[in-house]
Amino acid sequence: MDLERARSAALEAAEDLFYARGIQAVGMDEIRSASGVPLKRMYALFPSKSVLVRACLEARDTRWRAQLAAYVDSRPGPPRERVLAVFDWLYSWFSEPGFRGCAFTNSFGEIGATDASVAGIARLHKDAFRAYVTGLVVAAGQSQDSAWACVLLAEGAIVTAALSGTPEPAHQARRAAARLLAHPVVT
Questions:
Q1: How does pLDDT run across 66-90, given as a tens digit for each residue?
Q2: Is the pTM of this model over 0.90?
Q3: How far is 185 from 167, CA to CA, in rounded Å?
Q4: Fewer CB within 10 A of the terminal residue: the chain, N end or C end?
């Protein structure tokens, strides 16, 4: 197995295991078994579990944001509809088998207090999501306050969907966002 294939296999196995069971519950030997990458090669690619966790989060961030943007970009209609498309995409994500909420929130809650780099990646992800949604809301002619409200609706839907085990919070948040966009926040 060449280096790039080994790196990809290790990242995929680690990300799946970390997301399904939590970072602390998964050992490097388990990742080795799931990926088929020899432990020596694994440690050559990722000198520590912390390095592997960061690489998984960075890859997930890139993929997650690209999928969201592709979905929103594919939606026709006025700018307001692009904002609401975020919530449609969330519904689809929440409906996926094995959905366990936001990997960044989960990792921050699990090890963010003891691993500043993981906390930093989680914050960067949330900042990027906030900036993306803010751009959509402002392009729809709304205020920064309305943008923050839409971000909070989305973040609340993510947590609520994970805890409740149903994708419905995305629809509920979408309806609230539609009302908000019809009657924007003014400060």
A1: 999 999 999 988 999 999 999 999 9
A2: yes
A3: 26
A4: C
